[in-house]
């Protein structure tokens, strides 16, 4: 080892010539992973430190569609130092004349709100301003909502038919993150202003939350246990400061982990550059290696010397990546904090840096060991022969085993760090499959080029380009692997975005309703349907009774212990009752007319299969604080993709007899009729909430677009790494291009012909990389849209063309940068140096 260290130290004193691409590839990949990890940890730290502020208290007792009884409220007050009650619901905000209408997420608060933090208002008034002026209650409105209605401070408007006066614009509410996603801008009013109004009538859809500050020394865990025992069967939902915004936490974890995995794809592209760099380095050092072998150095000593050099360079590249990634996060801490969904303070933590360093070191080792291991096969006499020094083949079996072990360690580390086994394995598996397809395609393109080159002798520029692509030292494999993977990610994102836009733009007008109408009082249902059907453009109005319930148990066992975190079991779900089935049955029988026996329920077939349910199983569903235990009598084929009325659970009418409820309706009408329908609803049915389907989908599409943008940014690092590999391949081939240009000049070729040859080579390779990326991206997009989102796939030709054009442009730019030198070189000098 002492001799190996001396050799390595002597070699490293020669500088980093030839290793800039190695270092750049490693640095970019590590920096991207470190930066994403630091932002993810900052959000998690913000959720932990600001949990009580975001929740609005240290703990929260929630009830669906009812307020706590006097006894329940007394129990909560007895276990709290302070209590604040809020009611959250959707409503329609309209101008006094009904000319402008908008959906709003309405929050009704008592005098104690907010228990923690402060609302930011413009002008800066206190919560007491909600008392209003001249007997008219006040309200705070989100600036987006106020601008849409054309309101300024002091103007009057209506919420659910009740008149309010705008007292201030709501710039920020401290407990916004805990509310989750909403389809309307926020409005805040005093809870007292809604007492006795139809907005809080029995059966209407609202959430009541009691936020509490605890007496000093109170254990949150102990209070949770006591609350679950006290409110068992009452439909109480618990939240506390340790998980104030579970949806934000879950989303952050998943998106952050996925972006780290995309960063790993960038490191895989960098690995191609590392492989090529090490291979070229060993080729350049063949004379040095031969001399060392001739002087008696063993293969183990030489391998150790080269490994020490690579370890030192890997340490340098990883360290530079960590510094660059952490520095970028700190430099943009302000803008990052401004766009985060929760209050965060961006600081550096160790875990993301360790994760990024581990990924970088493992990737460098995996891709460098292959070319390095072949040193042991080379003999001193034949190392001087170029053909022997550059021969191809598999490394020794021991090295292959070591590479396999390191790869398994990389996958295991990704699984452990992300905590998402299936997502990690599917993403890394997709990257591996993409790399394999790209490598096979590169082999096929080189063989095809060799086959076609002799047939293009009458076209010198094309002949030279094909001959260069098919040559033994061709950069085709490095170009297609490096560029193709980054373009594949961008192509997949583009196809998914295009598919979602197509589903909204094309399928929605044919299949989906224009509005969902909520909180229809049953006595008003007939009049509302008749009025809407009399409007021009309305083709259909469907109505059903609607309640909300929480599935708490399956066959007497806690539901989540039986079926895990299925979406049906997360929170409350819409339920209905019916005399006759709305959808075709797939199994079982429907209850007879006027059935009055034990409760029965019909379940959506797809969700029932996912939950592992069968006919005769018993579901316990808590509705308005009452547990209903119903046996499954049938399964139905519910098609949610139509966006019409569909319920996972439909009960027999007797099971819910006497339960206060409202009706749900869907209105089918063309886009041109929507504005007038909204105005009609505001004038004649002000307590009914109209949810525009297109507007709601636009919000979902906007959220998905933000995710796609984040993935595209991460993929751009992969592309940048790929471009660095392209530059490295072009630089490594500069000497070969100079010799090629010199020979063509001697044979009578002009500079224009040589330049066309270089351009054709770049265009062919770029088009090949882009074309393969389009295919891989289309396959990935199809899988996401059809298997995950259950939507239809439409191939976006424009996006595909842009990907191919981008690939060609990238290779042309990289090739041009290193083509000018060979073109300017004198043939005599180049050919003499080759001898």
UniProtKB/TrEMBL annotation:
Keywords: Cell membrane, Membrane, Transmembrane, Transmembrane helix
Membrane-protein topology: Multi-pass membrane protein
ABC3 transporter permease C-terminal domain residues: 262-376, 713-819
A cellular component term, taken from the record's GO annotations: plasma membrane
Nucleotide-binding among keywords: no
Compartments (UniProt record): Cell membrane
Pfam family, one: FtsX
Name this polypeptide is given: Putative ABC transport system permease protein
Native source organism of the sequence: Rhodobacter maris
């Amino acid at each position: 080892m002492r001799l190996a260290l001396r050799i390595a130290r002597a070699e490293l004193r020669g500088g980093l010539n030839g290793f800039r691409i190695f270092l750049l590839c490693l640095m970019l990949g590590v920096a991207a992973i470190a930066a994403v990890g630091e932002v993810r940890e900052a959000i998690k730290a913000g959720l932990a430190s600001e949990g009580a502020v975001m929740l609005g208290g240290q703990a929260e007792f929630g009830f669906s569609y009812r307020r706590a009884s006097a006894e329940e409220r007394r129990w909560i007050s007895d276990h709290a130092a302070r209590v604040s009650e809020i009611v959250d619901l959707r409503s329609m905000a309209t101008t006094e004349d009904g000319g402008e209408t908008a959906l709003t997420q309405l929050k009704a608060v008592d005098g104690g709100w907010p228990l923690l933090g402060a609302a930011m208002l413009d002008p800066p008034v206190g919560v007491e301003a909600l008392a209003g002026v001249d007997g008219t209650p006040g309200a705070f409105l989100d600036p987006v909502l106020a601008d849409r209605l054309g309101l300024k401070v002091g103007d009057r408007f209506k919420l659910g038919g009740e008149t309010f006066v705008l007292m201030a614009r709501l710039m920020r509410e401290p407990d916004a993150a805990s509310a989750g996603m909403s389809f309307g801008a926020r409005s805040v009013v005093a809870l007292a202003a809604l007492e006795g109004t139809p907005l809080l009538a029995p059966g209407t859809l609202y959430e009541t939350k009691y936020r509490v500050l605890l007496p000093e020394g109170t254990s949150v865990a102990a209070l949770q246990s006591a609350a679950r025992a006290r409110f068992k069967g009452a439909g109480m939902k618990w939240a506390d400061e340790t998980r104030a915004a579970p949806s934000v936490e879950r989303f952050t974890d998943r998106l952050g982990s996925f972006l780290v995995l995309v960063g790993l794809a960038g490191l895989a592209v960098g690995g191609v550059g590392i492989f090529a760099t090490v291979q070229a380095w060993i080729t350049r050092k063949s004379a040095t290696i031969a001399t060392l072998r001739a002087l008696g150095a063993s293969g183990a000593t030489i391998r150790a010397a080269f490994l020490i050099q690579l370890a030192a360079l890997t340490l340098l590249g990883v360290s530079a990546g960590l510094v660059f990634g952490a520095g970028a996060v700190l430099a943009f801490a302000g803008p990052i904090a401004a766009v985060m969904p929760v209050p965060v303070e961006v600081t550096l933590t160790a875990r993301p840096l360790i994760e990024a360093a581990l990924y970088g070191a493992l990737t460098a080792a995996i891709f460098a060991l292959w070319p390095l291991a072949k040193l042991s096969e080379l003999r001193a006499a034949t190392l001087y022969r170029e053909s022997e020094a550059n021969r191809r083949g598999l490394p020794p079996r021991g090295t292959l085993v070591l590479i396999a072990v390191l790869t398994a360690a990389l996958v295991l580390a990704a699984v452990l760090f992300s905590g998402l086994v299936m997502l990690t394995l599917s993403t890394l598996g997709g990257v591996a499959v993409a790399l394999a397809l790209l490598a096979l395609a590169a082999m096929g393109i080189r063989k095809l080029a060799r086959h076609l080159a002799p047939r293009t002798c009458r076209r010198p520029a094309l002949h030279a380009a094909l001959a260069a692509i098919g040559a033994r030292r061709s950069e085709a494999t490095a170009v297609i692997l490096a560029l193709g993977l980054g373009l594949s990610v961008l192509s997949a994102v583009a196809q998914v975005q295009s598919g979602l836009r197509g589903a909204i733009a094309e399928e929605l007008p044919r299949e989906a309703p224009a509005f969902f109408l909520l909180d229809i009082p049953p006595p008003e249902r007939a009049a509302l349907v008749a009025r809407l059907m009399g409007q021009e453009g309305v083709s259909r109005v469907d109505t059903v009774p609607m309640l909300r319930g929480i599935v708490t148990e399956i066959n007497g066992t806690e539901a989540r212990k039986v079926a895990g975190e299925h979406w049906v079991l997360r929170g409350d779900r819409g339920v209905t009752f019916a005399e006759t089935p709305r959808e075709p049955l797939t199994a079982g029988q429907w209850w007879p007319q006027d059935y009055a026996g034990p409760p029965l329920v019909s379940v959506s077939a797809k969700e029932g299969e996912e939950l592992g349910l069968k006919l005769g199983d018993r579901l316990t569903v808590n509705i308005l604080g009452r547990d209903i235990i119903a046996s499954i009598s049938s399964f139905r084929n519910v098609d949610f993709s139509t966006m019409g009325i569909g319920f996972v659970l439909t009960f027999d009418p007797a099971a819910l007899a006497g339960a206060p409820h409202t009706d749900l309706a869907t209105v089918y009408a063309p886009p041109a009729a929507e504005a007038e329908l909204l105005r009609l609803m505001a004038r004649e049915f002000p307590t009914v909430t109209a949810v525009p389907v297109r507007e709601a989908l636009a919000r979902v599409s906007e959220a998905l677009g933000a995710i796609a943008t984040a993935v595209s940014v991460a993929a751009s690092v992969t592309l940048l790494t790929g471009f660095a590999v392209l530059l490295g391949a072009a630089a490594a081939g500069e000497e070969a291009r100079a010799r090629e240009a010199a020979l063509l000049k001697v044979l009578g070729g002009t500079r224009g012909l040589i330049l066309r040859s270089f351009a054709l080579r770049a265009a062919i390779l770029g088009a090949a990389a882009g074309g393969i990326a389009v295919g891989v991206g289309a396959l990935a997009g199809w899988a996401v849209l059809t298997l995950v989102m259950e939507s239809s796939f439409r191939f976006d030709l424009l996006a595909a063309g842009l990907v191919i054009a981008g690939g060609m442009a990238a290779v042309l730019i990289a090739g041009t940068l290193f083509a000018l030198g060979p073109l300017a070189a004198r043939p005599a000098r180049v050919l003499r140096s080759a001898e």
